[in-house]
Design a protein that fits this description.
There is one protein chain. With 500 residues, the chain is an alpha/beta fold. It has two domains: 150 residues, Leucine Aminopeptidase, subunit E, domain 1 (3-Layer(aba) Sandwich), CATH 3.40.220.10; 310 residues, 3-Layer(aba) Sandwich (Aminopeptidase). 33% of the residues lie in helices and 20% in strands. Strands 7, 8, 9, 10, 11, 14, 15, 16 and 18 form a nine-stranded mixed β-sheet that branches. It has a six-stranded mixed β-sheet with strand order 1-6-5-2-4-3, with helices on both faces. Helix 9 links the parallel strand 10 and strand 11. The longest helix is centred in the middle third of the chain and has 22 residues. Bound molecules: ligand BES, manganese (II) ion (MN) and zinc ion (ZN). The site of ligand BES has 16 residues, from helix 11.
Length: 500
């Protein structure tokens, strides 16, 4: 989809030829005399329309308006969150029309900040996303162009560019998490990463079973050994900062399908375990956005990717394996495989001498129970890092919630037969999983995001959400050291065409 940003007078908004004009309305609006403003005033007065968030009123071929359709959309208090809801509702309403070119006017809002503009762009892209990879005929995306009209370019440009860059990252993350496991094997994920390596500032390296064995990643290998699909350990680098600058490391859980292994899962909804590489997808999406936004910092992405399958060679409950850190692990439940692939990636991260490490994983059903689909679970041993992640969640409307890491939660991981067991009891399952990871993250500031509840929607709107790409991108942007000027001259054109 193609986005464009402009300032337009009310008269120009009425005169702009397009298939649909969406007008966001918040609170009281001025008594404009142009046809659109009059329509808003009349509709509010008659009680046929309210500025309450998400309310819609449609009109067709109205007098004095060049747009074929007009949609008034209530944007409540005009906050970024309300703007997101309003734009999403309006775009969904347009989905079954033939609209190709949409004019989205934010001009009637009392205040339009960077975050509201970004939210508007992201809501458009989100509502317009269509999955088509495994359909026999390509699904036609009718919507091609969105022109965003704002009162001031200066107050909107930054948010707009961020939104356009982020939209591409989000679309990539959704795409990979939605793909069925036979169309998103570890090898295919590695190819997706390699494709990102063609973008400015990004380099990619992919390790296979031999290299991973050489590194001593016995825990990761134990998960992969039940599958015919060879594992991949993907390393992405985005170099936007000075050479000597320590990188921020993102680690994404890349289980391309989680059957549970020998501790097999029940059949119902097992298909959804194709999104068990949602963490990996969010890392790929974040790198896609970094390539657009070109911030001045260094980022490394690590993705341990494999399937978790039952097989004659599969790891068995009770098996003890040796992780890259040297710690031995008793695998009491083969369905707690995420932590087993992440722990070796955490140990690998030590050699990068990172400023901070954030792992992102669809790690536990317990986190879905604890926080649902609203906030991701966030765990951190470092208060500054936790605060930065929480702030990034707030500013990007991609929320997370800090969870505890008291040492007592690790008691259940004790075992007679190894240094640590991979599961404790059912109680506090999201926290005990984080405590397991923490054992491998002692050498750097570390945080863990459990996105089991937020990366995917079940039910009617079934599919990947692309979360937490917005949170991660805002977090990374907050980590750019203040004194540094933009690193390179390869500034991409935000607002340029995107098919993603
Ligand atoms: N991938 C699952 C977690 C999950 C569950 C993600 C539901 C998304 C939705 C993970 O590998 C898993 O199976 N975790 C187990 C851990 C348990 C065996 C300690 C779980 O949550 O049941
Ligand atoms: Mn599992
Ligand atoms: Zn899993």
């Amino acid at each position: 989809m193609d986005f464009e940003l402009k300032t337009l007078t009310p008269a120009r908004i009425c005169a702009e030829k397009c298939d649909a004009l969406i007008v966001l309305v918040a609170g009281e609006t001025g008594a404009g005399t142009d046809p659109v403003s009059k329509m808003v005033t009349l509709a509010l007065k008659a009680g046929d329309f309210e500025s309450k968030t998400g309310k819609l009123l449609g009109a067709y071929r109205s007098e004095g308006v060049a747009a074929t359709r007009v949609l008034l959309a209530g944007a409540g208090d005009g906050s970024a969150k309300s703007v997101r809801t309003a734009v999403h509702a309006a775009m969904v309403a347009l989905k079954n029309t033939n609209a190709r070119r949409v004019l989205l006017s934010l001009c009637a809002l009392p205040q339009v900040g960077q975050e509201a503009v970004r939210a508007a762009v992201l809501a458009c892209a989100d509502a317009a996303y269509l999955y088509s990879t495994t359909k026999s005929k390509p699904v036609e995306q009718k919507l091609r162009q969105v022109l965003v009209a704002v009162p001031s370019l200066a107050a909107s440009r930054g948010g707009f560019d961020k939104g356009v860059g982020l939209a591409r990252g989000l679309a990539l993350a959704k795409e990979w998490a939605n793909r069925p496991a036979n169309h998103a094997t570890p090898t295919m994920l590695a190819q997706a990463a390699r494709d990102l390596g063609k973008l400015p500032g990004i380099k990619v390296e992919v390790l296979g079973p031999k290299e991973v064995a050489k590194l001593g990643m016995g825990s990761f290998m134990a998960v992969a050994q039940g599958s015919e699909e060879p594992l991949r350990f993907i390393v992405l680098r985005y170099d936007g900062g000075a050479k000597a600058e320590a990188p921020v490391v993102l680690i994404g859980k890349g289980i391309t399908f989680d059957t549970g292994g020998i501790s097999i899962k029940p059949a119902a909804e097992m298909d959804e375990m194709k999104y068990d590489m949602g963490g990996a997808a969010s890392v790929l999406g974040t790198f896609r956005a970094l390539a657009e936004l070109q911030p001045a910092l260094n980022v490394v992405g690590l993705i341990p990717a494999c399937e978790n399958m039952p097989d004659g060679r599969a790891v068995k409950p009770g098996d003890v394996v040796t992780s890259m850190s040297g710690q031995t692990i008793e695998i009491l439940n083969t369905d707690a495989e995420g932590r087993l692939v992440l722990c070796d990636a955490l140990t690998y991260a030590e050699r990068l001498k990172p400023r901070a490490v954030v792992d992102i994983a669809t790690l536990t059903g317990a986190c879905v129970i604890a926080l649902g689909g609203v906030r991701s679970g966030m765990f951190s041993s470092d208060d500054a890092l936790a605060q930065a992640l929480a702030a990034a969640g707030d500013s990007s409307l991609d929320l997370c919630w800090r969870m505890p890491l008291d040492d007592e939660y690790a008691d259940g991981l004790k075992t007679h037969f190894a240094d640590v067991a991979n599961v404790a009891g059912r109680a506090g399952g999201a926290i005990t999983a984080a405590k397991f990871l923490q054992r491998f993250a002692g050498k750097f500031p570390w945080a863990h995001l459990d996105i089991a509840g937020t990366a995917w929607k079940s039910g009617a709107a079934k599919g990947a959400t692309g979360r937490p790409v917005p949170l991660l991108v805002d977090f990374l942007l907050s980590q750019v050291l203040p004194a540094r000027a933009p690193a390179r001259t390869r500034t991409p054109k935000a607002g340029a065409k995107s098919n993603a």
